[in-house]
Fold each of these.
Amino acid sequence: MAKVKTNAIRILDAKKIAYEVLTYDNQDGKIDGVSVAGKIGRDPKEVYKTLVAQGASKSIYVFVIPVEAELDLKKAAMAAGEKNVEMIPVKDILKWSGYIRGGCSPIGMKKEYKTFIDESCLGLENMVVSAGKIGVQIVIDPKMLVNLTRAETPDVRK
């Protein structure tokens, strides 16, 4: 099988950042993070989902949190310096990020949005995020991902 090339993978290759690609079968429709963690044989604490939110100022923000966690909108707003933030509707994810639900990567979005990766990543040797396509994940050093996305690492989980 030819190696899958997504925008996120092309960026990692261009910047010579080490990563590993994991693929999983998504024919059963189970693309939620906890199901994906099971399919790729990883602890859900290492697998992160990418969420796109909009602040009261209309600015777009990216939050990367463990798949078992829920985004705390109050903490997210504080981190972003907003009065409040709300998740963008699923139908708008493609418009803002260039990705679809279940295949949204923090790497290589349409624009470079202010990104926040939950502080829980800092204790990990590797973390897993979407490669930008359903069925494809990237294993990466959290410090590399933080640097690449110019992310801040506050606590944004409930």
Amino acid sequence: MKTETPNIQVDSTDSTNLPPTTMFDLLANDHRRYTLHYLSQKVGAISLGDLAEQIAIWEDTPTYEEYERILTGLHHQHLPKLVDAGIIHYDMDSESVEILETADHLLAHLELVAPIDIR
């Protein structure tokens, strides 16, 4: 099945097929872990702005400048990486993000670090 995001096309495959190095790379960054944790707690798509705001709150830096920095990093770096792995769907036009069922296996690994990451 093809998942299409503007300018990005990926094959949505079961995340159990992700090589361990890819899974660990996806989970190596705080913002990607925060993104997956937040999305796993929501039903349906959420706005990119809500995601960036929540990450800023978790990092204890809820300033406008930090929000903008997080928003930019998500848009240009972290969300495309998760899209390429077939873990999320990111609609650039509506700026909405949704976790895919293919993330279930990856979320099991995320649960190991979530208590440390999320205050």
Amino acid sequence: MKKHLHPISLCLAAGLLLTLAHPAWALEYRSTGRAAPLYDAPSTAASKVAIAGSGLPLEVVVDTDVWVKVRDPGGRLAWIEKSALGGAKTVMVKADASVIRQQPRADAEVVFHAERGLLLELAGAADPYGWLPVRHADGLAGWLPAHEVWGR
């Protein structure tokens, strides 16, 4: 006896496969508005594990009313008070060296060079080709490849 799948079953199976093939949510990053302690639990009575400097981009893992569980650029998971977040959106250079260019093209004029760990303000959305507009604290602005930063 041959079994045939009902068309609705096929649609449900296809939907399940598509759901599993894509992440359930997009990564969210927020930057610190001020220097703040990172804790090992969502309480000021918990142990402090580090201090997040002002402008540090953090990946949001869990968001509650008062606390946010975050991943820092080094991969450490910790909790931070939600009130410490909300500064200008920043990214951190993760490449050993990155070239910030005047336009979003590999052959565009160089504006400045950035080394690993430098924080840059995100000045807008990425273009369709993966270039991010960024601004240095001293006012210099330009574009760099999105894959060379962490925190967008």
